[in-house]
Amino acid sequence: MINKEVAKNVLAKALSTGGDFAEIFIENKTTANISLVSGKLDQAVSGIDYGLGLRIFKGYNAIYAYTNDTSESNLLKIAKDAAAAIQGGQKETVLDFTTKTVPSIHPIIKLPGSVPKSDIIDILKQASQWSFDYDPQITQTSGGYTEEMQDVAIINSNGLWAEDRRIRTRIYVGAVAGNGQEKQTGGHGPGAHKGYELLNTINLEELAKDSARIAVTMLGADYAPSGKMPVIIDKGFGGVIFHEACGHSLEATAIAKGASEFCGKMGQPIASSIVTAIDDGTIPNYWGSQNIDDEGTPTRKNILIENGILKSYLVDTLNGIKMETPSTGSSRRQSYKFAPTSRMTNTYIQAGSDKEADIIASTEHGLYAAKMGGGSVMPATGEFNFAVTEAYMIKNGKIDKPVRGASLIGKGSDVLLNIDAVADKETQDQGMCGSISGAIHTNVGQPMIRVKEMIVGGRN
Amino acid sequence: MKKEIYEEAASQGFSDWEIYSVNGSSFEAQILKGQVREYKNSAPSGLSFRGTYNGKMGYAYTEKMESDVVKPLVSMAKENAIIKEEGEVEELFKGSPSYPEIEGLRPALGQVSAAQKIEMAKEMERIALSLDKRVVAADYCIIRAGENRVSIANSAGLDLSDESGNGVAGVVVRVVDGNSTKVGMEIWGGKDFSTFNAEAIAKEAVSEAIKKLGATSIKSGDYKVMFKNEVFANLFSVFLSNFFAETVQKGFSLLKDKVGEQIANPLLTVRDNISHPLSLSAASFDSEGVAVRDKVVIENGVLKTYLYNLKAAKKDGTQSTGNGFKSSFKGDIRTNVNNFFIEAGKTPFEEMMKSFSGVLITDLQGLHSGANSISGDFSLQAEGFLIENGEVVKPVEQITVAGNFYTFLKNITQIADNLHFYPFAQIGSPAVLAEGLKIAGE
Question: What residues of B are in contact with residue A375 (Cβ under 8 Å)?
Answer without folding.
Answer: 366, 369-370
